[in-house]
Amino acid sequence: MSSPAVGPLDTVLRVLDLEQVDADTFTGSNLPLPGGRVFGGQVLAQAVLAAGRTVEADRLPHSVHGYFLRAGDVARPVRFAVERLRDGRSFSARRTHALQDGVPILSLITSFQIDQPGLDHADAAPTSVPAPEDLPSPLDRPPADHPLARFWIQSGAFELRHVEESLATEHHPPATDRQMVWMRARGPVPDDALLHRALLAFACDQAMLEPVLRRHSALWSTPGLSIASLDHAMWWHRPARVDEWLLYVQSSPTAQGGRGLGAAQVFSREGELVATIAQEGMVRIPS
Questions:
Q1: Residue-wise pLDDT tens digits, 119-151
Q2: Which residues are catalytic?
Q3: What is the pTM of this model?
Q4: Per-residue DSSP letters for 158-193?
Q5: Pick the CATH number of 8-115+129-284 from 2.30.30.40, 3.40.50.720, 2.40.160.210, 1.10.1040.10
Q6: Considering Cα of 70, then 72, then 76, then 79, what sign does the dihedral take?
Q7: What is the DSSP letter of 145?
């Protein structure tokens, strides 16, 4: 009797299920991406989970600041070494190095906090945004001739529905530094608040630099395009489930010197601001 097929979300959850070596060291496997490079969102999520396993269960990550230092090799496991920087009455801080062959590919500081009362305000979600059900599924459109674009559309653990034309097609959109995307996991996720926060970091990294491309009417299939994440900052403001639709409101304030900055706010379907993200990446397009 054959074993049941493993879906894209199950594959990601298995990759994020780290093996503990000792109190502060963990190892993880990689998604088998085309091109053989480790997906930045994957190692980012794994580093958050590794750090989270060294703090008390009532402390959840509220921010991360990290640098992608080298490209990772999907054929080699990743070791996560956690350094305990501080444990205070309300906050904990951890530095996590993701290493392959003893060399860091990501260095990340994560801050954790217990749930506490305090001042409460937030930006409002955009109005008059089409519902995700009213937008076409990316599976209904042929993907661009780009291996990674095809992988995320056909085998990704998250479904992304662009309000504007997707950059994974062959149609050049109008130049603008703004875009909005609905995203949701392709299946239920266990009731684990730390896992949901890590998966949100994973999912957002798929499209963080798209506003930079959109501003210059570029596509994922643009000939000669070279793109890679350099750093990542993220703040979780309120609880959110990644197996429910979230609205990703993006912009690109600037690009210069082969680098572009992507920014995003993430809202729940009810309009709550649940996260804010910023990422700079190397973005090079032949002139």
A1: 999 999 999 999 999 998 877 766 666 666 667
A2: 205, 229, 279
A3: 0.94
A4: EEEEESS--TTSSSPPPP-SEEEEEEEESS---S-H
A5: 2.40.160.210
A6: positive
A7: S
